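Me: I'm a chemist; would you kindly supply a protein sequence with its structure tokens?

Assistant:
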Amino acid sequence: MKQSDIFRGIYEFEDPSGGILAAKVPYQGSAALFDGTTVIVRPNQRAIFIYEGKITEILKPGTHRIKTENFPILTDLANWKFGFKSPLRCEIWFFSGNLHTSRKWGTKSPIMSDFENLGTIPIRAFGSYNVAAKNPRDMYDHLIGSQNVLDIMEIEEFVQGQLIENLPDALQIVKEIKDLNKMQNEVSIELEKLVSKEINKYGLRVKDIQIQSLLPPKEVLDALEKRMAMNLIGDQQRYLMYQAANSLDAVNDGASNDPLQMMMGLMMGKGMFGMEGSEANHSPAPKQKKKIAQKKETKESKFCLHCGAEITLQHKFCHNCGGKV
């Protein structure tokens, strides 16, 4: 807002950023109202006057000129019935009714939800929502406080907190975890009903809450997948053999880079698929009788006592080592 407009007695508010829900004009201090002051409320805006901490008037879109007959509550509070010699000081707040779209929300940590036959399961969710100012009086009473402007970033944490807080109640319409994905739209509608009851108290409205993902964490999904596979196979030992085969396939295909997983896969594969041949692999080898060739002396020869060389009977010394025989 231009200062020249204030000096001319014209009060209005424009928001180039598009992210402001409420702002005080002027930003510092208070407005000086006198007979003939003009307040311009743009389309999709509302303006309120605050006099001595109380809301006196709520203005709809249009051009409003200050006259005692046009503002009966303010006139009565400020004792304007017989005119005034100096400007009246009060606050003017402008509220934007623009819809702030595609705001993101999500669970920082899983929330717990109960499902039939499974008990309590952690669930992660994220999505989007739209929000806008609805009731300037309630917004001023509950959200403004001592600040001079309220933008969308300041209420996002509040709205997201309401979404996450009400999500477990909205999830109660899902009885079985297998229906979690296909009932995302129904959960979104239920969540919007629950959140709207709380948000409306603060002068806000939320609409078009969308859940774009509603799933357990990966480790829970893996556990559920294994449980379903075992139920389908129907036999725990056969399931373990099936799991071991998958582990071996992962090792052979190079799909797993985890040494521990590779080792477990190999051990399981060896343990499960090698059971039938384990006895054969560990049975003692048959003893074989070894034929030991023994050298025997003949009538024509004998052996050296020093080196074992064979020599004839007529020799007294070994031809190999020279020793006496």
